[in-house]
Amino acid sequence: MTELMRTVALTKRYHANDEEVAALRGVDLAVERGEFVAIMGPSGCGKSTLLHLLGGLDIPTSGEIHFDGRRVDGLGEAAWAVLRRRQIGYMFQSFNLIANLSVADNIELPALMAGHSSREARRRRELLTRQLGIEAQAVMPPGRISGGQQQRVALARALINEPALLIADEPTGNLDSHSTRDVLGILRGANERGQTVVLVTHDPNVASRADRVLRMRDGLIVGESRLEGRTPSSDLLQALVTVED
Ligand SMILES: Nc1ncnc2c1ncn2[C@@H]1O[C@H](COP(=O)(O)OP(=O)(O)OP(=O)(O)O)[C@@H](O)[C@H]1O
Ligand SMILES: [Mg+2]
User: Fold this and answer.
1) How does pLDDT run across 26-80, given as a tens digit for each residue?
2) Nearest residue (CA) to ligand 1, atom 24
3) Distances, alpha carbon 170 to alpha carbons 52, 65, 118, 203, in Å
4) Is 170:147 a contact under the CB 8 Å cutoff?
5) Hey, what domains does the chain have and what are their CATH numbers?
6) Cα 137 to middle of ligand 1, angstroms
7) How far is the CA of 202 from the centre of ligand 2 (A)?
């Protein structure tokens, strides 16, 4: 496999109310093309911060980010927007859906912005909403559907351009076990078609589908387990759960 993304000594410090928070304290992460990576760790350890930097949604304090053989940490907002439109699908922890657009329009928008015809955007949206069980919500505004449905809309929007890299922050956080299975099926399908997946999850069952599980604590990656396609033992699942203490 070849490398798709790499960070070198990535740090992020936030300044809030005269206090400095070291959200990331030197993260070295390499992701192979086609890999499925899950990131776990307690609340506040820096998981969303890391994903934001990988998606170009925030600027690192120091360190490097390389994507597809090219250094990208110095790119401006417009260049990152192009990358996110063409190569990186981003699903936010807080969904960030557009309130005054319907579910269907929210999902189709990135496809239209990438230059697909409205017919193609609609075809892709219908396929995704069917797979995710949110077809009936297509005409509704995001404010009138449940949190779990909004989450699936956010995932469909991130996937519609078939990005080389899908970054997803807690894609199953609000879902019941049935919807979690639908979402996992979509993620694995995307991964089997060659798309690289990097996600954050608190759910050991979701993490157990990954090739590699990274554990974060206090702004650092402190451990990793490789699952290599085998069915995880109950011991391993237990070990993943205890990471969340
Ligand atoms: N915009 C911000 N301004 C100031 N501090 C921030 C900001 N975003 C995050 N932080 C702080 O950075 C640290 C890491 O936050 P982050 O959101 O990355 O954690 P997380 O691991 O995603 O947590 P959770 O599991 O609760 O989503 C926390 O201490 C948080 O309070
Ligand atoms: Mg988070």
Assistant:
1) 999 999 999 999 999 999 999 999 999 999 999 999 999 999 999 999 999 999 9
2) 43
3) 13, 22, 30, 9
4) no
5) 1-75+198-245 (3.40.50.300)
6) 31
7) 10
Spatial CB neighbours of 218, under 8 Å, sequence gap ≥ 6: 25, 45, 46
The amino acid that residue 132 corresponds to is L
What span, in angstroms and rounded, lies between the C-alpha atoms of 177 and 175? 6
Tell me how far CA of residue 194 lies from CA of 7, 182, 187, in angstroms. Answer: 21, 19, 11
Confirm whether pTM is higher than 0.90.
yes
Tokens for 93, please give them.
């922890």
Whether residue 201 has its Cβ less than 6 Å from ligand 1: no
Q: Which atom of ligand 1 is closest in space to residue 170's alpha carbon?
A: 27
* 8-state DSSP, 137: G
Could you tell me where the DSSP H helices lie in the chain?
A: 47-54, 77-86, 103-113, 118-132, 147-159, 177-192, 204-207, 234-242
Regarding the beta carbon of 45 and ligand 1, being less than 6 Å apart is answered yes
- Protein residue with its CA nearest to atom 12 in ligand 1: 23
CA–centroid distance, residue 48 to ligand 1 (Å): 7
Q: In a 10 Å sphere around its CB, with 0-12 CB exposed, 13-18 middle and 19+ buried, how is residue 124 labelled?
A: buried
Mean pLDDT of 145-160: 94
